[in-house]
């Protein structure tokens, strides 16, 4: 996949389109701390930390355009006071960047709250940027690579001696042309990239366990077999190719 760079150690992607580079991140879930607070977990300044990380990466890689791939906010409907203030501060901090926002299933009223226009999908060069909770348009399927968030991709690693840990991961999938023809008369898309969540406190469901396998059903491209979930390759944030989903599941069952 030309013109794509995965930021080392970060859940962020840089795509080059028309000679310009843009950075994509997804699933910030600003306000997620409220859920954790109800469990007695106190987290402070997470929004500021995320904004600082974004600005630092933008400076390091010379990025001026940022694409947010949905679920910017955590509440599904109107946010409470804390989340509302966090959202406004977040967009104020990112004001130096040229910002594009793709709607996620948590982003009701986001445009009204922030004054920033949002879109259901963003098409640029060889890429279609979507949240991942709905079917791409025919125009989006005319792009070579579809980039989504939504699934909160993660993998559970077995180090032996009953030592397990879970970490964020990337998922790269190839199209199943026979199944795609059932939904689209024509298409150019051949690859689907699914991003890990940017929020540091959302790891996600491991693809190599039952909860992770069920996650494919929230993305219609997987649940309808347009892209092959089980044959998708899983990569760690530091670029290690861990194998396909089916291979990782098989290792767990040994």
Question: Would you give an account of this structure?
Answer:
Helix 4 links the parallel strand 5 and strand 6 (118-119). The protein has 254 residues and is of the alpha/beta class. It is globular. It has helices spanning 33-37, 46-61, 81-93, 110-114, 138-141, 177-180, 210-214, 220-223, 245-252, and strands at 4-6, 13-17, 20-25, 65-68, 98-102, 118-119, 121-124, 127-130, 145-148, 153-160, 163-174, 191-194, 205-206, 233-236, 241-244. It has nine helices and 15 strands.
Report the span from N to C terminus. 33 Å
Cα Rg: 18 Å
The chain-level structural class is alpha/beta
Distinct helical segment count: 9
Uncertain spans: none
| Biggest sheet overview | 9 strands, mixed
Q: Report the β-strand fraction as a percent range.
A: 25-35%
Give the SSE string.
EEEHHEHEHEEEHEEEHEEHHEEH
Number of strands: 15
Q: Average pLDDT across residues?
A: 90
Level of helix content?
25-40%
Shape: globular
Set out the fold topology.
Blueprint: E1 4-6, E2 13-17, E3 20-25, H1 33-37, H2 46-61, E4 65-68, H3 81-93, E5 98-102, H4 110-114, E6 118-119, E7 121-124, E8 127-130, H5 138-141, E9 145-148, E10 153-160, E11 163-174, H6 177-180, E12 191-194, E13 205-206, H7 210-214, H8 220-223, E14 233-236, E15 241-244, H9 245-252
Parallel strand pairs: 3-4, 4-5, 5-6, 8-9, 9-12, 10-13
Antiparallel strand pairs: 1-2, 2-3, 7-8, 10-11, 11-12, 11-14, 14-15
Helix pairs in contact: 2-3
